Every structure is written in C-alpha cells, then in structure tokens.
Amino acid sequence: MKITSYIAIVTLISIADDLSAQDFKQTMEKLRDKYQSAENLRIKMSVEVFETQGKQRSFYHEKITITKHGTSYHHHVAGTDMVMNDKYLVLVDRPTKKIIVNKRDVKAEAKFYKKAPFNMDSILQAYDGGKFDGAMKGMNKFSATQKIGPIAKIELFMDQVSGDLKQVNYSYRAGQWATIIFEELDLSPTFDVNEFNEQQFIHKSGKTWQPSTAFAGYEVVRADDAKAFVNN
Predict the structure, then answer these.
(1) How does pLDDT run along the chain (232 residues), one tens digit per residue?
(2) Which of 165, 168, 188, 189 is nearest to 177 (CA)?
(3) CB 74, CB 192: distance < 8 Å
(4) DSSP code at position 214
(5) How many helices (H) and strands (E) does the chain have?
(6) Which of 190, 195, 1 is nearest to 84 (CA)?
(7) Is 138 helix (H, G, I), strand (E, B) or coil?
(8) How far is the C-alpha of 59 from the C-alpha of 204, rounded, in Å?
(9) Contact present, 200 and 214 (Cβ < 8 Å)
(10) From CA 221, how far away is CA 162, in angstroms rounded?
C-alpha cells in the first residue's frame, strides 16, 4: 500500500460557492479557490458505484471523512486512517494491522499536487461543454462531458440557498455509474484535541516507533519514501 495513493483523497476538496453564475468552468474555479484556501474543513461523504445507471443496488459503498486544519489533515475511509501534521505522515491499515510512518515534506507535496493528473486545473481542462441545466428540488444542476478518459460525463448538484455541493454523479464510458453524496461540509468545525496527533496511533520508545495502546499488536514500519518501506 502506497502513501501517495491516499494523498489523492485531498483532491476531493473542491466544493461549494455562490452559483448565480451559470458558466461551468467559472463555477468550478470558484469551488477550487474557496475550498483549497479554507483554513479549517470537515467533509463527510458517501460514495456508491453501480454497474449501470438505474441499478437499485451498488457493488461498492463507502463512507469517507476528511478534516483539515491549516496544513494538517486526517482522512478516514473504510479500514484506513491517514494523519498528516507538521512533522509526520501516518497511515493506519486496519485489515493488515500495519501502521506506516514517515517524516512529512510539505514542499514536496506541493510539487506533487501541481504535477498530479488529478490536479483541479487538469480536471477543468479535461471537461468540455459544461453547462447549467437548471434548478430542481432546491438544487442547481451543472453537467459537463469529458473529452478523454474513463469518465464520459459529470453532474453536480448545489444547494440554491447555501451554495454547498450536495451530490456529484459520474457516468463511465464502460457503463458504470458513481455517485458521491456530501453529508457534511463544515468550514468552522470543532476538532477533537487529538484529531491530527500521531500519538493516537503511535508513540516513540527511544528511537523506535511503537503502536499506541489502542493499536496494540499492530506492526509499525517506517517509510523512507512513498514507494519503499523498511522495518525500524
């Protein structure tokens, strides 16, 4: 399991703004600017993927929680937690009972995001024909087609009053249908005192990392980089 694969989750934070403008690209740029510059943030979302649009039962369903305070993050999805604070990046994989720890390099992350294929600017360039589809049930609907890639179309539903993004639908060329429902979007969240503290998962004993009491029995490994893991 690679740490960089979980960093991608941060790119989901491209959400909500005043939707009086009916231009898709301008709207998406506003979403990006507002939420990438947010000092504090909590997002709770539900993700479902269906074999085809209209199927009653999904073959994938997951809850995701993302919290942010400055440059600190905490992501929770399925059996995985990832905490990034000023000093460390800690990845907890419950199914394998492993905890991966690495020193954090904020500058390197900035370069990674800038070049990453899921960078918001790259996403904006990939979509064509973005349009405002109108209002329905208290929501403004936007949609756009994608020039290339596995996703053929994207639909966004925003609350007319709050401007919050409520739902995103993805139509895949292979026929699958995915939907993300945003259950909470909070720009002024209250955090638990240990929300971004690595010691909720690990602590140092001399020069060696050990699992915290709540994770007794887990193996702690140190990542010299995001691709190669070596034991302490």
Answers:
(1) 333 333 333 333 333 333 333 456 676 677 667 667 788 989 899 999 999 988 889 999 999 998 999 889 999 988 899 999 999 999 999 999 999 999 887 776 666 555 544 444 555 555 566 788 888 889 989 888 887 888 888 888 988 888 788 998 999 999 999 999 999 988 889 999 999 999 999 999 888 999 999 999 999 998 763 343 333 3
(2) 168
(3) no
(4) G
(5) 4, 15
(6) 195
(7) coil
(8) 41
(9) yes
(10) 44
Q: How far apart are CA 144 and CA 155, in angstroms?
A: 7
> CA angle 183-165-31, nearest 5°?
135
Token code pair at residue 148? 């290339």
Q: Please list, in sequence order, all residues whose beta carbon lies within 8 angstroms of the beta carbon of residue 204, skipping any fewer than 6 positions away.
A: 210
What is d(CA 229, CA 222) in angstroms, rounded to the nearest whole number?
A: 6
Tokens found for residue 224: 């010299």
> How far, in Å, CA of 180 to CA of 47, rounded?
5
Look up residue 60 and give its two tokens: 């994938």
Cα 135 to chain centroid, rounded: 27
Tell me the C-alpha to C-alpha distance, in Å, between residue 217 and each of 25, 96, 162, 164, 212: 49, 11, 46, 42, 9
Could you tell me which of 31, 36, 53, 6 has the C-alpha nearest to residue 177?
53
Rounded Cα distance between 88 and 32, Å, is 26
R_g (Cα) of the chain, nearest Å: 19
